[in-house]
Amino acid sequence: MSETDKRPLVEFRNVSYSVQSAPTPIIDDLNLTIHQAETLVLLGESGCGKTTTLKLVNRLLLPTRGSVLVDGKATTDWDPIRLRRQTGYVIQEGGLFPHFTVAENISLIPRLEGWEPPRIKSRLQELLSLVGLNAEQFGPRYPNELSGGQRQRVGVARALAAEPPLLLLDEPFGALDPLTRADLQREFAALAKRLAKTVLFVTHDVREALLLGTRIGLMKHGRLLTLETPATFLSSTEPHVRSYLDTLGLPRLSEPPGGAK
Which of 84, 250, 252, 259 has the most C-beta neighbours closer than 10 Å? Predict the structure, then answer.
């Protein structure tokens, strides 16, 4: 399917977001379209506006100016509860309810949506298998009985529970050790491709962006500097992009392999 054939699922139209205590907008005239079944990664350092952008999608925040559209309708016209139930949301450590078991955490939205118990049980088993956890072993456990990687797996399963068309992930693997993080990145990349979900993923890690993104949007001071595929991002001459790529230790395109003169 070509880029022009894909229907937009999320659109930012001249969106700005400001708070009175800040001298400049946190988001400044953002225009961005996220198409169905793509994983768009927002990359940037802390304070650049990427998490604010994420929260504007599920109406945790409302734009000061402009419009954010989800499935063709402005977030201001959505019932916020309905919008959030149709949007999977994953943060660091999974954001699990500590007093709920794994099974209760994952089943929460389906229960609120009125699913029948047999359907909920089947979905729970399906999702835990999907993220590599045994339902009988892990379903009765509480979040404090899990490792960090296991909590993130449960967080992803909970986000998928009610079969939402859109997933929002805010640095979900940032607090994990490097080996666990690499494992979950690879597994999530395969999972997103297999399920064909639309994903908006926030990170400050350029390696993660290159691994997971079908497109990468680099943000700075509330603005979108560039929006590229991983391949074109790697060959970009934009200075801020190059500063990120330099952290990878890759040779510049103008340099001979191995740095030979």
Answer: 84
Q: What is the crossing angle of helices 148-160 and 117-130, to 10°?
A: 130
What's the number of CA atoms in the CB half-sphere (13 Å) around residue 1? 10
- Pure H helices in 20-147: 50-57, 80-85, 102-112, 117-130, 135-138
